[in-house]
Specification:
Blueprint: H1 6-15, E1 20-24, H2 28-41, E2 45-50, H3 51-56, H4 60-73, E3 78-85, H5 88-97, E4 101-104, H6 111-127, E5 131-135, H7 154-164, E6 168-170, H8 188-198, E7 202-204, H9 212-221, E8 223-228, H10 230-246, H11 253-276
Parallel strand pairs: 1-2, 1-8, 2-3, 3-4, 4-5, 5-6, 6-7, 7-8
Helix pairs in contact: 2-4, 2-11, 4-5, 7-8, 9-11, 10-11
Length: 280
């Protein structure tokens, strides 16, 4: 299947008042699992490669090209997205490799500097037909807009989108990164206000900390792209640990990575169904 863009997937989700899952790739097994889960569900999906993952692999190209190959081989629409890039050079690498979207994260900068940096990246990406996600935040380290207690102001969000011309906005509504429990409480009224204010798809980061009912409610309130990483990593690691505990002499990585890949694929299919049918 020809590579699809994140913009096409999110446009389709918005028109149908549904959500789309965006899941992080750490290694090739994750990319395969996410695509397999999407095929099982019969729904589109977004593969995300973060700046941290690119650094782990010694650069974006190895894992980026693998993800693009998996996406092209899938039987359902799969987009490949650069997640949480703080480096303009990495954004350019993604565009040159063939990524159809990027998330540029300048949220740790003061507002004016965030606007300037994001506007420059957006202009570059749009000149190459690439969709851009960004986020608002405050100085506060890695979590930025998704540190506990931070909330996005709708008026500021509207002004930011207008000033930068981004295609989607990650907003702070009660979730935070790397949560190990699914008990975050989202501000659904704020999500609706932000949806009405900005006119572009809203993105929920830190969604691993949100339970199924919360995810469905967030989509119903106006969220479109839902990013999930830690939750799947927990399942992947649990499956590896379970296999190795039962097979203490195992040496072939395929023996324990295969079950981990299958576990993630099954959960991706289930989560995509939750997001695609928020009104059930």
């Amino acid at each position: 299947m020809p590579l699809i863009s994140t913009g096409e997937i999110t446009d389709g989700a918005r028109s149908g008042a549904t959500g789309v899952g965006a899941f992080n790739v750490v290694q090739i097994e994750h990319a395969q699992a996410i695509a397999n889960g999407a095929q099982s569900a019969g729904l589109p999906v977004i593969l995300q490669v973060s700046e941290n993952t690119a650094r782990y692999h010694g650069g974006l190209e190895p894992i980026g090209l693998a993800s693009l190959a998996v996406a092209r081989a899938a039987g359902v629409p799969v987009a490949v997205h650069l997640d949480h890039a703080e480096s303009a050079d990495l954004v350019r690498d993604a565009v040159q490799l063939g990524f159809t979207s990027v998330m540029f994260d300048a949220s740790a900068l003061p507002y004016a500097d965030n606007v300037t940096a994001t506007r420059e990246i957006t202009a570059y990406c749009h000149s190459h037909g690439v969709w851009v996600e960004a986020e608002l935040g405050e100085i506060g380290g890695k979590d930025g807009a998704h540190a506990p207690g931070v909330r996005t102001d709708p008026d500021e969000a509207r002004a930011f989108v207008e000033a930068t011309a981004v295609d989607a906005l990650a907003v702070a509504v009660g979730s935070s990164h790397a949560m190990l429990t699914r008990d975050a409480v989202l501000d659904l009224a704020l999500i609706s206000r932000l949806r009405d204010a900005v006119g572009v798809p809203l993105v929920l980061h830190g969604s691993s900390g949100v339970g199924d009912k919360g995810l469905a409610a967030a989509v119903h309130a106006g969220m479109t792209k839902v990013n999930i990483s830690t939750h799947l990593n927990k399942l992947f690691t649990r499956a590896v640990r379970t296999y190795l505990d039962a097979h203490t002499e195992a040496a072939d990585p395929r023996r324990y990575l295969g079950p981990a890949r299958d576990a993630v694929a099954a959960e991706v299919a289930r989560l995509l169904d939750v997001l695609a049918r928020p009104g059930r």
